């Protein structure tokens, strides 16, 4: 199994401290701050440990403080409600006695009902595109939009329609295909947690797309502020899926970003929305 994918699967196997309290480790090759997608995925996994026979349909989270990658994270789950159809959980991620993350998540029994969706966008298939890590490694040191973390092996393979180093669209859009770099069991809760991890990949930088020519990524102090996600249909993260992202607005040093996940059959699997800090570094003026 691919090393980065295997590590992520291990990180989602949280240590149980006592009822409703779990401990998670961090990625070994992370920078000083914990990747937000990792905290999202682990928090959802912690909530899932307290729920039986139901899958997540939504989560709403706030990133309160930067996570220290050298310290484990404690996840304290509050069992808010167990209803006949829906279950609600609240979870806090804690380091050094302080909350760094807070999330509410809702789970639902499987139900049939009315269905519709917008058509999937028409972008090139992943087989027509190049691996983003290979592109970043080729441009490392020559393009200010190539950041250090884009050159290391990640659990998900990604192939962007508009990769770094190529002409970027005028519109604030960022479509890319993703696939976990390993085959995994058909466990729906695990696939949901892994999609939560992937949902924070490249989302913040969508709001930077129209500004990259004049303000490179290396000039930005960025961080996820809040994050919401809705799961619509069964999904498999070890098959190619499209992450179609856009940014309707940026203002007051914040960027608002959205995304939709589609499988190769065009089914809308999940949706996400996030507001991010996008502050221009003054020392780069």
Major sheet? 12 strands, antiparallel
According to CATH, the fold-level topology is Porin
Q: What integer is the average pLDDT?
A: 93
Distance between the termini: 45 Å
Radius of gyration: 18 Å
Strand content: 35-45%
Question: Which residues sit in consecutive blocks of at least 5 with pLDDT less than 50?
Answer: none
Give the % helix.
Answer: 10-25%
CATH hierarchy, class: Mainly Beta
Please list the strands of the largest sheet in the order they lie side by side: 1-2-4-5-6-3-9-12-11-10-8-7
Describe this structure in words.
- It is a single chain.
- The protein has four helices and twelve strands, in the order αββαββββαββαββββ.
- By secondary structure, it is of the alpha+beta class.
- It has one domain: Acyl-CoA thioesterase, double hotdog domain (Porin).
- It has a twelve-stranded antiparallel beta sheet with strand order 1-2-4-5-6-3-9-12-11-10-8-7.
- Strand 5 and strand 6 form a beta hairpin.
- Helix 2 runs antiparallel to helix 4.
